[in-house]
Amino acid sequence: QDILRSLARDFSAAPDVSSFLFFSSEEVTRLKASYAYIHECPNFTGQFPWDVGMRELGMIKARSLGPSKTFALGFYVMT
After folding, report:
1. What gap in Å lies between CA 28 and CA 35, rounded to an integer?
2. What is the per-residue pLDDT across 6-45, written as a single tens digit (0 to 9) for each?
3. d(CA 24, CA 63)
4. Which of 34, 49, 72, 73 is deepest in the core (most CB within 10 A)?
């Protein structure tokens, strides 16, 4: 579990978003999640892509199906 947490932290921290000239931080985050999924897909041995990119992978899937809306937890939870 500690190894997975360490890998997830490293995955989240790198690369530095400011080093990209043509991509926004949201696009870099989506690219990272997509790459993690594609890289793991042939092996399909673990949950790593979902552990580090669940939100982004869900948004990619929703957008691929047509018009979609995503909600932040604070907006979704009714108090």
Report:
1. 10
2. 777 777 777 777 777 788 878 888 888 888 887 776 666 6
3. 18
4. 49
